[in-house]
Amino acid sequence: MAHAQYPPSLFSSLITCFIFTLALFSPSVDAEASSCNGQPVFCDRKYSSVTQLGAHDSPFVGPLPQQNQNLNVTEQLDLGIRYLQGQTHKVENDDAIRLCHTSCVLEDAGTLESFLITVKSWLDDHPDEVVTLLLTNGDNLPVSRFDETFAEADIKEYVFVPEPSSEVLSMDSWPTFGQLISKGTRLVVFLDYGADVSKVPYILDEFAYYFETPFDVTDRSFSNCSVDRPPGAKPDGRMYIVNHFLDVDILGVLIPDRIRAPKTNAVSGEGSIGAQADLCQSEHSRLPNVVLLDFVDQGKVMEAQDKLNGL
């Protein structure tokens, strides 16, 4: 049976149409996202101009007193959380950096590498999302060890590096969420102590960029928005983190207040996310950049985030 013969001009047109269709539907990191972190308006907002609600001690999941979350990390991200905080520690006779609550005897949530692999898998599946990690360095490990772990998790392809990397970005110099997404630099990383951008340029010094309000709060009204860390720092020129997670004192031991979490994580009312954000705004003349929470599945966390961002 003879094959159909197309005129050269028609064949050329078909090829052109095919190539155009491929280009239209093929993913590209240079394409502008139509929605960023779930909101079209975030695409044009600077990273430093959005309030993000974050999971405090995000790896420590379960019903025990030392555990701070009910949802695992993937479920936290699926809920809408894009800011994950976690504690790291080192144990003897183990080269791995581990995610441990105060000590690895009390609570060991596994290796940092495993955590990063989970985050990378989620980023792979969600190309229009920017995730931030805030890690603590409780055992003062060299930043090169963190870099090695990020490399082992194969997640460095996503990391954001400021330009120039040797300087601290001013608040108005941060890229927009749309720019972070279009460049494929969708993982922002902070370390509380031990960062050195001359050695590892993508692991940023938390306290060069942020100040924090007091933590381990037992005051249900959250009536304090003062600068707690870094000690003696002025708030001007820094983003800031509100530690809005409530502890309860049991015989001198502070544990997360799971029972009051729905009220602590409410949109409004005494001791709510909204109430403390309003207090901090009145004190610092701007809304917080991050509000860290325990039990992010309790209360109305994403509704509170929308309200703080004027949505």
TrEMBL record:
A GO term, aspect molecular function: phosphoric diester hydrolase activity
Keywords assigned by UniProt, alphabetized: Signal
Keyword field contains Membrane: no
GO biological process: lipid metabolic process
Keyword Signal assigned: yes
Signal peptide positions (record): 1-31
Designated name of the protein: Phosphatidylinositol-specific phospholipase C X domain-containing protein
